[in-house]
Amino acid sequence: MDGEQDRLLPIANVGRMMKQTLPPTAKISKEAKQTMQECATEFISFVTGEASDKCQKENRKTVNGDDICWALSSLGFDDYAEAIVSSDVSMISLSLTRAHKDVNSTGLARNL
């Protein structure tokens, strides 16, 4: 049992994600958290395995974000792949905005 628990996502994290989606008054049983924990872990393993297979065929050792998006799309989860790409673009934009504010607040690179 310990070996199986080691490969599962932390149940506290799974429960936290479930609570964020449900109304504040909703209760979540331990069994529901465990079931979601197993399903989420299996889904991640499934997608990662597909991405890993692609990398092996291309003689690469490292799976990257593009490989995960490719795997999601090839497995029929196009909406998830698009959400990841949109999220990445938003995070990059946010990072650039913060970096720009940091540069301006320090007075560096005002002439750029």
TrEMBL record:
Q: What cellular component terms from Gene Ontology apply here? A: CCAAT-binding factor complex
Q: Which UniProt keywords apply?
A: Activator, DNA-binding, Transcription, Transcription regulation
Q: Where is each Transcription factor CBF/NF-Y/archaeal histone domain found?
A: 8-72
GO molecular function ontology, one term from the record: DNA-binding transcription activator activity, RNA polymerase II-specific
This protein's source sits in the domain of life called: Eukaryota
Span-the-membrane segments of this chain are: none
Q: Which family does it belong to?
A: Belongs to the NFYB/HAP3 subunit family.
Q: What is this protein called?
A: Transcription factor CBF/NF-Y/archaeal histone domain-containing protein
From which source organism is this entry? Salix brachista
